[in-house]
Amino acid sequence: MVTRTVDLRSDTVTKPTVAMRAAMANADVDDDVLGSDPTANRFEAEMARIMGKEAALFVPSGTMGNLISVLVHCEVRGSEVILGDNSHIHIYENGGISTIGNVHAKTVKNNSDGTMDIALIEDAIRDPLGELYFPTTRLICLENTHANCGGRCLSVEYTDQVGEVAKKHGLKLHIDGARIFNASVALGVPVHRLVQAADSVSVCLSKGLGAPVGSVIVGSKSFISKARRLRKTLGGGMRQVGILCAAAFVALQESVCKLEGDHRKAKIIADGLNEIKGLKVDAASVQTNMVFCDALKGSNIIVSKLCEVLEEHGILIMPICSSSLRIVLHHQISDSDVQYTLSCIQQAVIQIQADAGKGAAVEHMNGKV
Ligand SMILES: Cc1ncc(COP(=O)(O)O)c(C=O)c1O
C-alpha cells in the first residue's frame, strides 16, 4: 500500500495551504465583471506594482493570459508574431493565436538555453516594403523561464536586447512569464527589472507560486483595458473572483521566498540522478525548479516503465518520451521527499536492469539470440 505521495509531475499540482484556504473563506468580494471586487482590484494593483507596469488583470489561466496578450498586440488582421519554435505558446496552447486570433506565427529556433539568436529574430521581421505579400510583424514573444528548455532563465541583458530590436522595428514585446518569479530569484534580479523591456507579461500564480488558480497579465493601462474586453469575449470574466485573488495574494507572500529552496532541491535531484548508472542530467541546465533526465542508450531503462515502478512507491513523475523524463520541484516537496525519491529511483533502476538482464538470459537460453 502506498503511504506517501511525492508529486513531481509539475509545479501546478500543489494544494492550497491553510493560509490560502482561510484567505479564500474570508475574502471580501463583489462582482469583478462590474469592476467592483475589492480583493481583485487590490490584487491587480499589487501585481502591477511588483511587475513595474501601469495595470494588471487576473485571468483564469496562463494560456488565456498569453492568448489575450498576443491578440491585443496583434489586433489588426494579417499580423504576425515571432516566437520560439519550442515555446509554450507555439506548442502547447492549441494554436489558439491562429485558430482564435487569426495571428500568423513565425517561429525562430530556440537555442537550448531558451534564447533565440538576435540575428535570427531580426531576419524574421518582415520587410514592410513587401506588405502586398507578407503578413505584418507586430510582436515578439519570449518565455522566461523557458519550460521546454529545462526551466532555464533568460537574462536581463538578453531581454533588454530583444526589447531594443522590438523598439527599433516598431514591434511590441510580450513575455510568457509563467515562471518569471523563478527566473527573478535564480538570477537575483528584481522581477520588475527583468521585464522592464516588455510591453506585456503573463505571470502564472498557479505554478511555482502555488496558488490554486489563475494568472495575471500586466502592461500599460490601455493594453489592460483592451485585455479586459477580450477576457470577457473569451468567457474569462469571473464574478466573485476575489476568492481566487485572495489565495493568490497569500501565494505571493508565502511562496516567493521558497523558490530558492525549490531550485536548491532541483540541483540535489540532478546531482543524485547523475550518480545513478544509466541516467544523465545536464547539470548546467538545472537553473530553477525543473530537472530533465535522460536514460542512456544501452542502459535498458525504459522511462515509462521507470515511472510505473515509481508510482507504486507514490512517486509521480512525467515521462517526456521513451528515453527522458521531467521532474518539477515545488514548495510542497521536502528535503526528505527528495532523498526518498532518489533512493526509490536508484532501486527502481536496479530492478529494471535486473529484469532486463533476466529477460535477455531467458531469450538466450531459448535460442532467440
Ligand atoms: C511556460 C508556460 N506558459 C504558459 C503555460 C500555460 O498555463 P496554464 O496551464 O495556466 O494555461 C504553461 C503551463 O504549464 C507554461 O509552462
Q: Could you name the CATH homologous superfamily of the largest domain?
A: Type I PLP-dependent aspartate aminotransferase-like (Major domain)
Rg, alpha carbons: 22 Å
Specify the overall morphology. Answer: globular
Might you state the CATH topology name of the largest domain?
A: Aspartate Aminotransferase, domain 2
Strand content bin: 15-25%
Q: In order across it, which strands form the biggest sheet?
A: 2-8-7-6-5-3-4
CATH class of the largest domain: Alpha Beta
Residue windows where pLDDT falls under 50 for at least 5 positions: none
Query: Which compounds are bound in this model?
Result: pyridoxal-5'-phosphate
Span between termini? 38 Å
Could you describe the largest sheet, including whether it forms a barrel? 7 strands, mixed
Number of DSSP-assigned strands: 13
Keywords: Lyase, Pyridoxal phosphate
EC number: 4.1.2.48
Catalytic activity: L-threonine = acetaldehyde + glycine; L-allo-threonine = acetaldehyde + glycine
Protein name: low-specificity L-threonine aldolase
Describe the 3D structure.
A 7-stranded mixed beta sheet has the order 2-8-7-6-5-3-4, with helices on both faces. A 4-stranded antiparallel beta sheet has the order 9-10-13-12. With 369 residues, it is α/β, with parallel strands linked by helices. It has 14 helices and 13 strands. It starts with 5 loop residues before the first strand and ends with a helix. It folds into 2 domains: 6-10 and 258-359, Aspartate Aminotransferase, domain 1 (Alpha-Beta Complex), CATH 3.90.1150.10; 18-256, Type I PLP-dependent aspartate aminotransferase-like (Major domain) (Aspartate Aminotransferase, domain 2), CATH 3.40.640.10. The longest helix is centred in the last third of the chain and has 31 residues, at 335-365. 43% of the residues lie in helices and 17% in strands. A hairpin with a 2-residue loop joins strand 12 and strand 13 (324-328). Pyridoxal-5'-phosphate is lined by residues 61-63, 66, 88, 143, 147, 176, 178, 204, 215. The site of pyridoxal-5'-phosphate has 11 residues, from helix 3. Pathway: Amino-acid degradation; L-threonine degradation via aldolase pathway; acetaldehyde and glycine from L-threonine: step 1/1.
